[in-house]
């Protein structure tokens, strides 16, 4: 059954876009459905959950930090993460672009997950550990900078959840159609109603001046034409 929302488990070293960029792998190598675009991004060297949609308002709600959908990451760091470092993450960490908001941080056992290709390089005689970190912001490479700031550089970063959506039952490199939750649909309805009220407000524009007739995310560049892949991962 199709829907206007897709959940994808992005592999390591895959760009969160459909357009080609050099010889780097992109979403086009895994997803072949017209008019779906990422709602937010996930770094090239990060793995895990990425949501895509063909609805502009839904794309805006998911991607915007203003709507505060929490994002949960599984993070492998160099060294045994200390209680002091976890406390600092919970309180907020000072970065070059400002203080982060308090995060939910806890030590976890190594999760039962897929092997990364290529594998993480470990330094001899230096242990590694895992933590779960939940944030509600979207600063550039925020999780990596946060763990480095408290003395534990990130070795592997997996986004496990966005709001109520998780990687459960979605192997790496595969995707599923999913149904937006009632709360997410309510946010979309509220956002669209606000947009209509602003558009209808008197004296918003000078007489005869016309503005854009599309909502955020609805006008996006068309994907370049490309041949359909002759082979690829099995899709659900």
From TrEMBL:
Enzyme class name: isomerase
What would be one Pfam family of this protein?
A: PseudoU_synth_2
Q: Where is this region: Disordered?
A: 191-236
Gene Ontology terms: biological process: pseudouridine synthesis; rRNA processing
List the biased-composition ranges (Basic residues). Answer: 195-207
The UniProt entry, under Gene3D superfamilies, shows: Alpha-L RNA-binding motif, Pseudouridine synthase I, catalytic domain, N-terminal subdomain
Which InterPro entries does UniProt cross-reference here? PsdUridine_s_RsuA/RluB/E/F_cat (IPR042092), PsdUridine_synth_cat_dom_sf (IPR020103), PsdUridine_synth_RsuA/RluA (IPR006145), PsdUridine_synth_RsuA/RluB/E/F (IPR000748), PsdUridine_synth_RsuA/RluB_CS (IPR018496), RsuA_PseudoU_synthase (IPR050343), TruA/RsuA/RluB/E/F_N (IPR020094)
List the PROSITE patterns hit by this protein, alphabetically.
PSI_RSU (PS01149)
Pseudouridine synthase RsuA/RluA-like domain boundaries: 4-149
User: What EC numbers are recorded for this enzyme?
Assistant: 5.4.99.-
Keywords (A to Z) from UniProt = Isomerase
What molecular function does GO assign, one term?
catalytic activity, acting on RNA
Cross-referenced PANTHER family, in alphabetical order?
PSEUDOURIDINE SYNTHASE FAMILY PROTEIN-RELATED, RNA-BINDING S4 DOMAIN-CONTAINING PROTEIN
Similarity comment: family membership: Belongs to the pseudouridine synthase RsuA family.
Name of the molecule in the record: Pseudouridine synthase
The record lists the organism as Marinomonas arctica
């Amino acid at each position: 059954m199709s829907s206007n929302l897709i959940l994808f488990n992005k592999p390591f070293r895959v760009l969160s876009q459909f357009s080609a960029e050099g010889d780097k792998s992109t979403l086009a190598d895994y997803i072949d459905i017209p008019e779906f675009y990422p709602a937010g991004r996930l770094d090239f060297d990060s793995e895990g959950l990425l949501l895509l949609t063909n609805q502009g308002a839904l794309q805006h709600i998911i991607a915007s930090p203003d709507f505060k959908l929490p994002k949960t990451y599984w993070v492998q760091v160099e060294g045994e993460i200390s209680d002091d470092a976890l406390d600092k993450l919970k309180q907020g960490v000072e970065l070059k672009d400002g203080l982060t908001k308090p995060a939910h941080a806890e030590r976890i056992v190594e999760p039962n997950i897929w092997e990364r290709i290529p594998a993480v390089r470990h330094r001899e005689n230096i242990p590694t550990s895992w933590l779960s970190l939940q944030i509600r912001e979207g600063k550039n490479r925020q999780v990596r900078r946060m763990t480095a700031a408290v003395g534990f550089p990130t070795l592997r970063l997996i986004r496990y959840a966005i709001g109520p959506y998780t990687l459960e039952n979605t192997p790496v490199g595969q995707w599923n159609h999913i149904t937006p939750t009632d709360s997410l649909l309510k946010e979309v309805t509220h956002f669209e109603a606000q947009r209509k009220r602003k558009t209808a407000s008197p004296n918003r524009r000078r007489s005869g001046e016309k503005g854009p007739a599309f909502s955020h995310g609805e006008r996006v560049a068309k994907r370049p034409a490309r041949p359909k892949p002759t082979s690829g991962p099995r899709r659900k």
